[in-house]
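Q: How would the structure tokens look for this protein?
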Amino acid sequence: MCPESVEKALTHLDPFQTRVHIQSTTVRIRIARHQLVHFGLISYFVFTGGHMSEKLSEPNDRRVRRTRMALRAALISLLPKRGWDDLSVHEICERANVGRSTFYMHYQSKEQLLADGLGDLRKVLMVEASERRRTSPKTLPFVRGLMEHVYEQRSLFRSLIGRGSGHVVQMRFRQMVLQLVNEELSLHVDQGWERDAASNYISGALVELLGWWVDSRTLRSVEEVEQFFHNLTSTVIRRL
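A: Here is the predicted structure in token form.
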């Protein structure tokens, strides 16, 4: 990605007094609070009140990023075709044009590769939710972003949470959604068994709804499904 593209994509951070300085070999970013900017498969992390200097000319760092991006892209492209249970590390390496020994330098297993990708997705959704929270009264603002991702990449998410998905990949996705729900409820509800129970109840319902959605022959719009979900869960949240 060229410096001009990075600079343009970061313009929405101006309200947080972001200062972006682009050089040919260095990207320096200063921001008042934590943010994450996501460009497709590339994520730029910006930390609270400090500087992040990333020397793009560092050969080792560039190789690490390039290798991990290739492995993630391979996983994303193969999952809809092969399914989680039948997909092997060998196939991922072949598609990414990466040796098995190189794969294990970065990840212990395909499960860890998946968890790494879902972890980044969670961070992206948290940032999007932070922006929506400013204008939306809805208690779970991350839901809209998650549903947009699911809608745009239906074949991928069908392999993650649809009827034909594997147990491990479903469990990882459920854990990610549970974290998002729990983090959101923690902003409004005191810690306790009721909040924990509600987080599991709501996240389980959301995952099941998304699984039904991606498998449905008649695909409803993001707006319809999101509103339906909020209508179902609003009573639960009000009782906390």
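The radius of gyration is 19 Å.

The beta strands are 19-22, 26-30, 35-39, 42-46, 51-55.

Upvote if useful.
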